[in-house]
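Dear U.,

For the methods section draft, I wanted the exact inputs and outputs in one place so we can describe them consistently. I've listed the two proteins in the order they'll appear in the manuscript figures. Please don't edit the token lines directly; just add comments below if something needs changing.

First protein:
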Amino acid sequence: MITLTEQASLKVKEMLAAENDPNMFLRVGVRPGGCSGFTYGIGWDKEMKEGDETFTQDGIKIVVDQDSYLYIKGTEIDYKDSMMGGGFSIHNPNAIASCGCGSSFKTALAKGKEEKCDD
């Protein structure tokens, strides 16, 4: 399961309302790359794909492709506001290492495709 904290849920609802499309849902996934091997992807989608995992929380439809779900099962997405702006953060219990920016990770089962960091 993929879950949203209360703050993340509120922010996603606000952003979905701005999209003004009742068919839109939150798609979460990973792809090879980044400093540690995999990078997270979060965005809007409205087309389901074969094998997608679907969760609903607080009226929000969350969809993860089958391959990504292996690496992010049990993940919690949070949202924090600060004076420097706000942003989503990902707490992935499967990650055994991540880069300093927190958007790249690797798991015990897979290393992904590590790339040089742009520090």
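Second protein (the one for the lower panel):
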Amino acid sequence: MPDEPDDLWVDEMAGPVVRPFAVAGGRTRQSGADELDLIAIVVTAEVPMPDPSTLGPEDERILELCLRPRSVAELAADLSLPVGVVRVLLSDLLRRGLVTVNRPAATATGRPDPGLLKEVIDGLRAL
């Protein structure tokens, strides 16, 4: 018998089983055309907060964490959820106007700035 509620979502051999899929409402792709980069910076929008009954616990946690700017990768680590699930949740919050996303500046080659990538990697290592 599981000791904690989170144990219900873990198989000893496989790890997390159902919960991430359930958290994203069964979706595996984010809504909207733009994919959120791992290094995109997310901030809670300065708008009146919606009725808490319209938010899931993960949504509330994202809004709380993003009072300070965070990358998509940091959010995934802080929430202990797969990046794909966090992207789905963020796309929903973005569509509702509850968060803003600042995408990384690209160089002339269309790739993110190497200095910015290094900063994100250093920040993730510090976690």
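Candidate sentences for the figure legend, describing the second protein: The two ends are 32 Å apart (CA to CA). The chain is about 40% helix and 10% strand.

Thanks,
Y.
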